């Protein structure tokens, strides 16, 4: 299958999600790596990727390949029925995580049986060697979770860690020296309702744990979102952006990406990649609301949801990651990642054309790197004939050293005027130097981890922004540098120039190039704020009885009272869920046009499933709900979780009959005894849809903005309150206020 070029991407530098369109039907739980051959590779969960082409059954851990992160081709699969190890049994294979460790590609994956496997290969498409189960029984027993959704991370001291877990705890432990087996004590680092898909990126002195929560695979009703916590240690404690420990028994904030009301539902189970300009990208799956489900699959499981591959810009704002500054998954054309160098290149299939090579350099080729430059002898450079147009650049080189040292040179005018970052085998260090007029302005050394093998490929990345130089060394550029150094440069050294490699002794270089440095986005998209208060659609509960504008469905509910500016409502032992509609609902009319309804709620539930909050209600089978709920943990030994639960109920058109109802929650910010709940209504006339966005607050000032649920617009919605599911708690509503948007 040829690479689908994508006219827009080629001609205008744009892309449109999903980037896997026309290649595979689905690529769930994606992970991506920039390989030594200069190409990008994506790996996904076992799925019927060619169902639309008439293929029965599934591919086991399918692989895609791309030159630009936008246009992809199918490149095979990790296992076939013939090569699948016997110890897998009949388990399906899920959630791959790709890394480059000690000169080989490491692909960790989950088994539906609850084990974690590892396959290694000399190249990104294999041949793959089974390395068995990396998670011993003792580690599984120490973590109250389903042992899937693993991810590996290498710290600055060279130690390896594994993160794993699903429904509802994420655990972490150190691995052995070659990252093939967990051997350290297990630490629980996060827990939450349906929490899973964790992986760690280190940035700016913090370790960021990305994860997903809610439901991954409920078609257009999937409430999946990506969230993050951060810590100063790879084993935590991790906290969200309000300082809530990820181990606390509540839902969490710091939402990285959630549904925004366009075609994409359930964005989640993400990966991470950085383009050649230094811009980070979130790699994730999402579900098209127009085409959410697979038809029945021959020789495969039933009821599968299509989850194609998406990419979107990942910004870091005020120390926290967020997709597109908070705008959510993209639908239309977007600026594409930078995947071509302004100067430099990959040495093709073994060519030094377009390079100025000093003595001792020659072109070679190999299985993984394909073309590369090899050096033996005295100090010598190989630099690009073309110079970078800007002084602010991101330069990188893949280097390996047999003896002596190899370095990345940038802002290179000549050997007497340049900046260099060395991997020095004699000093076991990353060494930077600035040379102006033939004179060094001072070398600086940062130790490499003990046992660091310079004889295998490592990437040196240097970012020059103004007069600030930052250099990182990593195996795979996946947010896990093992050495990092930052230093100021003299202004005379911060200039456009060539990029290249330099070596003394025996060393190799590949993928040497530089591109203009990305411009970071530093402000989030404006948060919507309510406008004019609409008194006719609001209530401060200042009287002694429920006002005449309120009406009951299945009411009045027992024990409801209004006193002292509060509506008090004991939770009912009743439900509003699919075919069980026994709970009372207190309703009033909503205004015409767009609006936001807000309620202040005091609620201290103590038992699972007690809940109270707001609804926008059409009927028992079509509504939106934002509630403070208590939900049991799947493997919590009776523990319950206080959550901000945002869900919808309505038709699932792909079911038979299409009027069947289905619902799925998103989980918002942290819950507290006193909560402020919001739902914002918008009618999308272009698509004939009702859109509702939710937000929560614990102080009435700082809001956690949740995702958006949509339903085909039919009848009008009314504003309502509920207090239900299990008796024994008391909901106290201080007010209901409606604002014009």
UniProtKB/TrEMBL annotation:
<keyword id="KW-0378">Hydrolase</keyword>
<feature type="domain" description="Beta-xylosidase C-terminal Concanavalin A-like">
    <location>
        <begin position="538"/>
        <end position="654"/>
    </location>
</feature>
<dbReference type="InterPro" id="IPR006710">
    <property type="entry name" value="Glyco_hydro_43"/>
</dbReference>
<feature type="signal peptide">
    <location>
        <begin position="1"/>
        <end position="21"/>
    </location>
</feature>
<dbReference type="InterPro" id="IPR041542">
    <property type="entry name" value="GH43_C2"/>
</dbReference>
<dbReference type="Pfam" id="PF17851">
    <property type="entry name" value="GH43_C2"/>
</dbReference>
<dbReference type="InterPro" id="IPR023296">
    <property type="entry name" value="Glyco_hydro_beta-prop_sf"/>
</dbReference>
<protein>
    <submittedName>
        <fullName>Beta-xylosidase</fullName>
    </submittedName>
</protein>
<keyword id="KW-0732">Signal</keyword>
<dbReference type="Pfam" id="PF04616">
    <property type="entry name" value="Glyco_hydro_43"/>
</dbReference>
<dbReference type="InterPro" id="IPR013320">
    <property type="entry name" value="ConA-like_dom_sf"/>
</dbReference>
<keyword id="KW-0326">Glycosidase</keyword>
<dbReference type="InterPro" id="IPR051795">
    <property type="entry name" value="Glycosyl_Hydrlase_43"/>
</dbReference>
<comment type="similarity">
    <text>Belongs to the glycosyl hydrolase 43 family.</text>
</comment>
């Amino acid at each position: 299958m040829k690479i689908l070029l994508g006219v827009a991407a080629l001609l205008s530098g744009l892309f449109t999600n999903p980037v896997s369109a026309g290649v595979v039907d689905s690529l769930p739980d994606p992970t991506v790596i920039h390989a030594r051959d200069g190409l990008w590779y994506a790996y996904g969960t076992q799925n019927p990727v060619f169902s639309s082409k008439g293929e029965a059954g599934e591919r086991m851990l399918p692989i895609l390949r791309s030159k630009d992160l936008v246009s992809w081709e199918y490149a095979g699969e990790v296992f076939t029925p013939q090569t699948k190890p016997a110890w897998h049994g009949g388990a399906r294979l899920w959630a791959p995580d790709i890394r480059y460790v000690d000169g080989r590609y490491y692909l960790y994956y989950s088994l539906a049986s609850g084990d974690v496997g590892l396959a290694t290969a000399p190249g990104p498409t294999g041949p793959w060697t089974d390395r068995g189960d990396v998670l011993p029984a003792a580690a599984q027993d120490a973590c109250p979770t389903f042992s899937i959704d693993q991810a590996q991370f290498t710290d600055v001291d060279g130690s390896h860690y594994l993160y794993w877990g699903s429904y509802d705890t994420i655990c972490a432990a150190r691995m052995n020296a070659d990252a093939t087996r967990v051997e350290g004590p297990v630490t629980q680092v996060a827990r939450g309702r349906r929490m899973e898909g964790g992986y760690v990126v280190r940035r700016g002195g913090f370790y960021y744990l990305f994860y997903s929560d809610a439901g991954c695979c409920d078609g257009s009703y999937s409430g999946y979102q990506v969230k993050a916590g951060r810590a100063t240690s790879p084993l935590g404690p991790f906290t969200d952006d309000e300082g809530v420990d990820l181990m606390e028994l509540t839902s969490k904030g710091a939402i990285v990406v959630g549904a925004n009301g366009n075609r994409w539902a359930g964005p989640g189970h993400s990966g991470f990649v950085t383009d050649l300009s230094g811009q980070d990208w979130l790699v994730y799956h999402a579900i098209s609301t127009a085409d959410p489900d697979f038809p029945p699959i021959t020789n495969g499981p039933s009821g599968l949801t299509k989850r194609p591959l998406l990419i979107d810009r990942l910004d870091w704002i005020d120390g926290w990651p967020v997709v597109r500054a908070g705008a959510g998954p993209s639908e239309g054309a977007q600026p594409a990642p930078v995947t071509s160098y302004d100067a430099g290149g990959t040495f093709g299939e073994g060519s030094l054309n377009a390079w100025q090579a000093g003595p001792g350099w020659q072109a070679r080729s190999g299985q993984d790197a394909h073309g590369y430059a090899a050096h033996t002898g005295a100090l010598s450079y190989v630099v690009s004939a073309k110079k970078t147009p800007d002084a602010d650049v991101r330069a990188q080189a893949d280097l390996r050293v047999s003896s002596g040292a190899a370095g990345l040179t940038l802002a290179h005018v000549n050997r007497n005027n340049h900046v260099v970052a060395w991997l020095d085998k004699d000093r076991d260090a990353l060494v930077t130097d600035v040379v102006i007029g033939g004179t060094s302005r001072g070398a600086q050394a940062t130790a490499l981890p003990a046992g660091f093998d310079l004889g295998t490929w490592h990437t040196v990345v240097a970012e020059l922004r103004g007069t600030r130089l930052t250099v990182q060394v990593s195996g795979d550029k996946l947010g896990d540098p093992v050495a990092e150094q930052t230093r100021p440069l003299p202004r005379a050294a911060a200039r456009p120039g060539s990029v290249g490699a330099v070596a003394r002794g025996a060393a190799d270089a590949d993928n040497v190039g530089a591109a203009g440095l990305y411009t970071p986005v530093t402000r989030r998209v404006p948060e919507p704020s309510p406008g004019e208060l609409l008194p006719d659609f609001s209530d401060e509960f200042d009287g002694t009885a429920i006002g005449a504008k309120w009406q009951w469905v299945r009411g009045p509910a027992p024990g409801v009272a209004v006193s002292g500016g509060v509506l008090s409502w004991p939770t009912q032992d009743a439900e509003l869920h699919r075919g069980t509609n026994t709970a009372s609902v207190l309703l009033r009319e909503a205004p015409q046009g767009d609006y936001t309804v807000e309620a202040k709620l005091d609620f201290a539930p103590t038992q699972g499933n007690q809940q109270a909050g707001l609804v926008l209600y059409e009927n028992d089978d079509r509504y939106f709900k934002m509630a403070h709920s208590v939900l049991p943990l799947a493997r919590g030994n009776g523990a319950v979780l206080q959550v901000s639960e945002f869900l919808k109920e309505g038709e699932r058109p792909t079911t038979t009959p299409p009027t069947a109802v289905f619902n799925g929650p998103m989980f918002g910010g942290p819950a507290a005894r006193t909560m402020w709940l919001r739902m914002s209504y918008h009618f999308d006339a272009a698509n004939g849809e009702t859109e509702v966005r939710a937000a929560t607050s614990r102080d009435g000032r700082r809001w956690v903005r949740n995702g958006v649920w949509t339903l085909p617009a039919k009848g009008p919605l009314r504003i309502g309150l509920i207090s239900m599911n299990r008796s024994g708690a008391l909901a106290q509503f201080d007010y209901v206020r409606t604002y014009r948007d």
